[in-house]
Amino acid sequence: MVYLICFFVSLMILVLLTAYGRNLDYTVILLAAAVTVSNAGHYCVSVASNPEEAILAVKISYASGMYAPMLTFIIVCTICRIELSELKRLIMAGVQTVLYVGVFTIGKYPYFYRSIDLITGPDGSYLEKTYGPMHTMYLVTMVFYVVASIVAGMISLNRKNTVSRINVEIVLFAEAVTVTVYLVERLFRLRYELMPVAFVVSMVIILIPLVKIYRYSLYHNTSIINDDRVMAGYIILDRRLRYRGCNDPAAELFPELRQWELEEKIPGNGGMFNTFLRQPLMSYVGNEETGDPVTKTFENKGKNYSFEIRTMKVKNRIKGYYIRISDITGLIRGQGS
Questions:
Q1: Whose C-alpha in 9, 85, 93, 219 is 20 to 30 A from the C-alpha of 43?
Q2: At what angle do helices 51-79 and 86-103 cross, to 10 degrees?
Q3: What value does the mean pLDDT take over residues 39-55?
Q4: Which CATH number fits domain 233-336: 3.30.565.60, 3.40.50.720, 3.40.50.1460, 3.30.450.20?
Q5: For residues 131 and 109, what is the distance between their CA atoms, to the nearest angstrom?
């Protein structure tokens, strides 16, 4: 029953991500798909009535074990803003696929399982197996991705102005859940697999920072994407006026942004932001019901700038604000000549 619940929960997540997660990275969809397929395999093992059914089901169940750690590592790198080239991703996927091919030798050759027996108990069927050399290789890759994810998260804790400390802590907690469940399985030699539950819980936990990142991302939010986003400066704030990020032009104009910590309140004093933008922003937030953007200008170091403050909405609900700053010096000089 537990495996069936895990299957339906993961399937529901997969459907929702496919339908509404258009801006999410494809690795998130792949992770949800791998967990869903794997949970279906675990359920089939639990209701198998003969060894042939169980062997086929266990082959399916390894979809998450083979690919989920790798996909989770890629997602962690995305959250921690660590670049992974397409070549590295291809190599990792290739290694895991070779190992997954080894899974399909179960029941025929002793490469992944040396032996396998189906035991039928009052709570369902389970497998007694003796592991082969390819299973050891599988465990090595699993440990590698878990350790690599934790290391990436720990390194990113010191980059508070580019990576959210809260998001990193959430990711590390998700990894801790998976590792803890796996260790419990091994230490207590449990007959029934708990990893399906762990993968579902971890996937839900990891989705929390991902949704936040893509909701406030300059390059993934369709409500603020503009062809001139490379030239214009953008500053993103959430509903509670916590700093969510900016692009390079904004950081060049307002250098203090490079020191601000993500998901923290705007510092109350000092800097050009507080000089030129804070008061208009607070006034706009106090009158946001109108929905009309605020457009004003300011002059600094001989240059003229215009800025526009708008709301970021999801289904007509305000989720945050963005400020767009443009250099209009040439325009003003052209009008004056």
A1: 93
A2: 170
A3: 95
A4: 3.30.450.20
A5: 12
